[in-house]
Automatic annotation (TrEMBL):
SMART domains per UniProt: TGc
Cross-referenced Pfam families: Transglut_core
Chain ranges of the Transglutaminase-like domain: 167-227
Species whose genome carries this gene: Janibacter indicus
Record-linked Gene3D superfamilies: 2.60.40.2250, 3.10.620.30
Lineage: Bacteria, Bacillati, Actinomycetota, Actinomycetes, Micrococcales
Name assigned to this protein: Transglutaminase-like superfamily protein
UniProt-listed InterPro entries: Papain-like_cys_pep_sf, Transglutaminase-like
Length: 284
């Protein structure tokens, strides 16, 4: 499925250099699916991808997904180390026109349904009590504000299996947990919402970052309830229903052991924008 069309865009350009280096020990792994590349929705000025598996350099097959998502498949990973080095220079241009096309109608239905980590059906009564009268951008801002106030950002406080319900009960988590709660509450209120993995210049501590996107005022807009980085400088990687669709590493067969990971994201042209949580901000 091709992506939506952007009309009457008014560019506000920034240039960022982003990348990652990570390594996992592998035993008997048949295939690995990697999600680290900048989305094709961006204008990528330079890009380098270097992958090693089992002690030798390998070429990965690139798969094109929805919304510009680019996945890379490594076959016959085997035993040893799976190592990835990635670097890209990206021209960040924010679209401001209407988003149109048949894909929009499809997405607005798909991203209103409950999903593995965004259990909007279970949260519907709670969402109705918390946000009984808001609509449009007022609703989106109210949900983002509630999640920011209710939850504490604590590294290592959540499990990879936690969904939005778990995160609300624990009142803590990391970026993906904040995004899942935002997505689930908005869907419970009838607002289409989805999860996006991003590179985020200005993020501290630096890592892969996850944010929500909400359909409001005829376009997708970023909602980052962590408020840890300016949304204007973010660079899209992958887009999906929740973290199950945007994981940066998925394997078939065998087992993997984490070794190391470094993520970089910095502006090389332009100044880091000041964040205004109430402003409407869109990703390419």
């Amino acid at each position: 499925m091709t992506d939506l069309a952007i009309v009457d865009a008014d560019p506000t350009p920034l240039t960022a250099t982003v990348g990652t280096k990570f390594a996992y020990g592998t035993t008997g792994v048949r295939e690995a699916l990697l999600s680290f590349a900048v989305s094709a929705a961006h204008d990528i000025l330079e890009e380098e991808i270097l992958i090693h598996a089992g002690g030798k350099q390998v070429e990965a097959r690139e798969l094109a997904g929805n919304h510009g998502t680019r996945l890379h498949v490594v076959d016959e990973v085997g035993d040893g180390w799976l190592e990835v080095t990635y670097r890209a220079v990206v021209d960040i241009t924010r679209p401001t026109g209407d988003q149109v096309g048949r894909e929009i109608d499809f997405d607005r239905w798909v991203f209103t349904r409950p999903s593995r980590y965004a259990e909007s059906d279970r949260l519907a009564p709670m969402a109705a009590r918390l946000f009984p009268s808001q609509s449009g951008i007022e609703r989106v801002n109210a949900v983002g504000e509630w999640v920011n106030t209710h939850m504490a950002y604590i590294s290592g406080s959540s499990r990879g299996t936690d969904g939005a319900v778990d995160s609300i009960l624990q009142a803590s988590g990391v970026c993906r947990d904040f995004a899942h709660v935002v997505v689930a509450l908005l869907r419970a209120l009838g607002t289409p919402a989805r999860l996006v993995s991003v590179y985020a210049p200005g993020l501290q501590p630096m890592d892969f970052h996850a944010v929500a996107e909400a359909w409001v005022d005829d376009a997708w807009h970023i909602v980052d309830a962590t408020r840890l980085a300016p949304r204007e400088a973010m660079v899209r990687i992958a887009t999906g229903r929740d973290a199950a669709d945007t994981a940066f590493l998925t394997t078939r067969g065998g087992r993997t052991t984490f070794n190391r990971q470094v993520v970089t994201a910095a502006l090389t042209e332009g100044r880091l924008p000041q964040e205004d949580p109430s402003a409407l901000v869109r990703l390419a």
